[in-house]
Amino acid sequence: MRLRYAEFFAELAERADPHVRHGPDQQEWGERVAADYDNVRAAKNFALDRAPALAMRLLGRLTFFLWLRGGFAEGRTWVDAVLARAEGQPRELVGRVHECGSLIAERLGDIKAAARHADEAYTAFASVGDEHGMANALRERGKVASHRGDHSGAAAVFTELAELAERIGDRWNGAIALNTLGDLALQSGDWEQVVDLCGRSSILRRDLGDEWGSALAVCNVAIAELQLGRLSSAAASARGALEASMKVDAKMVVAASIDTSLLIAAALGNMREAPLLAGVSERLREELDSIRDPFEDEFFARAVALLRESLRADAYEEAIQHGRELTLAEAAACALAATGDPD
Q1: What is the rounded distance in angstroms from the CA atom of residue 200 to the CA atom of residue 162?
Q2: Count of alpha carbons within 13 Å of 196, Cβ hemisphere only?
Q3: Which helix (H) or strand (E) holds 162?
């Protein structure tokens, strides 16, 4: 009975995974996994010692559920435990767990481990000719290079990913490649290129039903528009990203949208809401066990420095604490108010 129980929830994760990554029913499948997460955890614990392949099937299909909902510290312990039992297991399962491990390590800021997992994932998928798996591994390799500040290396990897994705019909990874090339343009200050690449990525992902991915790309567009002085467009983009990410309860993207809203609120001089959003952001990052990307952290730090200069120390700290106490719905309402149309 315990084995059948574990198989049931592994099959649930396998059915949910493609929908959570992209599709018009992202929200429904995300909520189904979330509602049974304690059962998923129990199934993993049983399978770990009694049926390692089953544990690998389950964990390898939770990658983007974890990315969206958080819980990276726990996820890392799962990856380590499962891989300790990986000898002799099917290579495609090993590849999926390493893909999960790379994403988790990157979010925790352990870029060395993220690189190792990405390389292991690529090797495992390549050994069985799984080109869709290889595309997933390339995506994680490119993110590692970007975190290391290797812009030329990251651009080469994402260009390779875009070419592979087009050849195998993987529109989702192709759209991610576009967005991440836009990330690189954001880091180099090529704002118009960001608007072009990330704007196209957003449209492609929205067409696939990928609401959270489209919203993430729009956050990049909003930041670039802000740098170009297009405050009205930046504010509208930030509001759209927040509304889309709240719709599918994509907490990682909600956190990115809150950060983007903070940048715009500070630029607009909305000193009532902006420090509240800084408090919200602090709490969300702690709850999600997640760092910001380095270039995002630079934008955030500059905005917070502006707030500190503009407010009395006690008023700033009081606002931060108030922001930390807001519910997610209250925080979203605050962000929408803070990015109200400047015209």
Answers
A1: 13
A2: 7
A3: helix 151-168
